[in-house]
Amino acid sequence: MPILPRLLTLSSKAWMVAYLGAILGVAAAWGPGNDRALVQVVVIPAVYLATDLVWTYLRDRKTYFPTAALASGLIGAAVLNPAGPLWTVVAFPLLAVASKQLLKLRKRHVFNPAAFGLVALSVFDPSVNSWGASAWWPRPLVIGAFLVGLFMIHRVRRWETFLSFLVVYAA
Question: From the CB of residue 134, how many other CB atoms can be counted at a distance below 10 Å?
Fold first, then answer.
């Protein structure tokens, strides 16, 4: 089977991981202060995955590959301020996984774990979150990330989430 049709059959989570991993890898290697950014892109998802795997194994005695945890770790790596304190690189995934594992209603987590981790960190240090962290990315990468992001929104059928974010962000 040719590669393009195979790519189009990937799950939404796999697309999200590939998308986030690609833009973060390029941005971290290309941007200023890339040593810390590269550490962040590697350490946050690794701690997130390890914590989620260990927690789930201890609770359920099951092993699996937590694709959603990897995506959340990459989101945190993208949003966390690379110039922020180093402790946040470990604290973010620990807080996110704790919220996912502990704050549940009908066996489903109540909050988006990545969002919870970022908001919880903001309580301790408001400078840790930087939704403008992509400001130092080269313009072609920003345009490419935006276009692939639109494809991802289409793929997961979440236009209402995207549009509501734009309305709130513009206000």
Answer: 17
The pTM of this model reads 0.72
Contact 55, 97 (CB under 8 A): yes
Contacts of 33 (CB under 8 A, 6+ apart): 82, 83
In the chain, where does DSSP find H-type helix?
3-8, 12-30, 34-60, 67-79, 88-102, 113-124, 139-156, 159-170
Say what the pLDDT of residue 61 is: 92
Joined together, the tokens standing for residue 77 give 């790596």
Measured CA to CA, the distance from residue 161 to residue 145 in angstroms comes to 18
What pLDDT is stored for residue 94 in this prediction? 95
Q: What is the DSSP letter of 125?
A: -
- How far apart (Å, rounded) are the C-alpha atoms in residues 36 and 5? 37
CB neighbour burial string for 66-95, b if at least 16 within 10 angstroms, e if fewer: bebbbbbbbbbbbbbbbebeeebbebbbeb
